[in-house]
Design brief:
Isopropylmalate Dehydrogenase, Rossmann fold, 10-stranded mixed sheet, two-stranded antiparallel ribbon, globular, binds nicotinamide-adenine-dinucleotide
């Protein structure tokens, strides 16, 4: 039975990079490697222009019904002055909230051909392959009470609450352990158990889960400040890192930059199990809508293409097809083909569609 994919290309370079993903999906469908039924909808500023909201109810319903959602990027100067309630980003937040996407997967993978783009030394990052699993719907960004109040002495006070329950910790840790099974069988759980009770609970619950269900996964606990240091000192010691919303926000950006290029970074957000082994999921590049280069055919489509590869791998278990696509990306980079953002001396500069052409050729060669 064919799987339903909802594509929400969004704004700015979103539709440009998504055009290249759609070419790859068509190629894979035509080859019989996949059987995807693709539908498309609007999100962000482009949805606001048509519907007056950044995500229409019908599009939300389609996302809930889809087997996976692939998103481009949202936002841009045209919509910067809109009221907060209808800003393009609210469309994304609605998707994340209603699909209950609690686990954010951010790989930091260094392609050999691009290792020199990292700000760290070549031998420290070459061959790097880390997966950061960030809790996305709990913790200090959502905890109550919160707010700014005026105290009796006239001083103002800003308040946020870091809070986690057992079930929130267990479900994110399960995602990390399950991923580790398919990778290097090693998980680092990261918190501040030395100074925060929520961190201590996190540590105890992750350890309990590991002992009960994941005996052959090596688990290490690490304080978040040490993890930040270790990520730039010796990042290859890590396989899977699982951490809360706040620390994950910082550490995933830090790890991403080890790879040296925003235009190469994919991500996945995974939701609750909704039965039949199915989980809601949304895949999107880490980068935004890049208004400075939008409409010029210059954007690097690889982050979006690698997000599609994560969809193949994590939503549909099509490991061979995902490997084939990842290897084709390697081939193209090894051939010295580059968009402007990853350009190096002696390489061949191409635009968005030129990168898509090269990738399809590399896929043909591997098929
Ligand atoms: N998930 C999302 O949709 C998302 C994420 C971040 C920012 N945004 C929005 O995007 C808009 C621009 O934000 P920003 O400039 O801070 O971040 P950005 O990621 O859009 O761009 C940062 C820089 O990286 C470059 N860049 C980004 N992606 C690229 C690609 N694929 N190929 C080549 N170069 C690329 C841009 O040209 C720019 O110079 C804002 O409206 C912001 O709110 C959306």
């Amino acid at each position: 039975m064919s799987k339903k994919i909802l594509i929400l290309a969004g704004d700015g370079i979103g539709p440009e990079v998504m055009t290249e993903v759609k070419r790859i999906i068509s190629w894979m469908n035509a080859r019989g490697l996949t059987d995807f039924a693709v539908s498309e909808g609007l999100v962000g500023g482009s949805a606001y222009d048509v519907h007056g909201v950044p995500l229409a109810d019908e599009t939300m319903a389609e996302a809930m019904d889809a087997d996976a959602v692939l998103l481009g990027a949202v936002g841009g100067p045209k919509w910067d002055s809109l009221d907060f309630s209808v800003k393009p980003e609210r469309g994304l937040l609605r998707l994340r909230k209603e699909m209950e996407l609690f686990a954010n997967l951010r790989p930091a993978l260094v392609f050999d051909a691009l290792a020199e783009a990292s700000s760290l030394k070549l031998d420290i990052v070459k061959g790097l392959d880390i997966m950061i699993v960030r809790e996305l719907t709990g913790g200090v960004y959502f905890g109550q009470p919160r707010g700014i109040t005026t105290l009796e002495n006239g001083e103002r006070q800003g308040l946020n609450t870091q809070v986690y329950t057992t079930s929130e910790i267990v479900r994110i840790a399960e995602v990390a352990f399950d991923l580790a099974y398919k990778r290097g069988k090693k998980v680092h759980s990261v918190e501040k158990a030395n100074v925060m009770e929520s961190g201590l609970l996190w540590r105890e619950e992750v350890q309990k889960l590991r002992d009960a269900k994941y005996g052959d996964i090596a688990l290490e606990h690490m304080y978040a400040d040490n993890c930040a240091m270790q990520l730039v000192r010796n990042p290859k010691q890590f396989d899977v890192i699982v951490t809360d919303n706040l620390f994950g926000d910082l550490l995933s950006d830090c790890a991403a930059m080890l790879t040296g290029s925003l235009g190469m970074l994919p991500s996945a957000s995974i939701g609750a199990d909704i039965g039949g082994g199915k989980r809601r999921a949304m895949y999107e590049p880490v980068h935004g809508s890049a208004p400075d280069i939008a409409g010029q055919g210059k954007a690097n489509p690889l982050a979006c293409i690698l997000s599609y590869s994560m969809m193949l791998r994590y939503s549909f278990g099509m490991l061979d097809v995902a490997d084939m696509l990842d290897n084709a990306v390697q081939d193209v980079l090894n051939q010295g083909i580059r968009t402007g953002d990853i350009m190096q001396a002696g390489a061949t500069l191409v635009g968005t569609s030129g990168m898509g052409d090269a990738l399809l050729k590399a896929l043909e060669a591997r098929a």
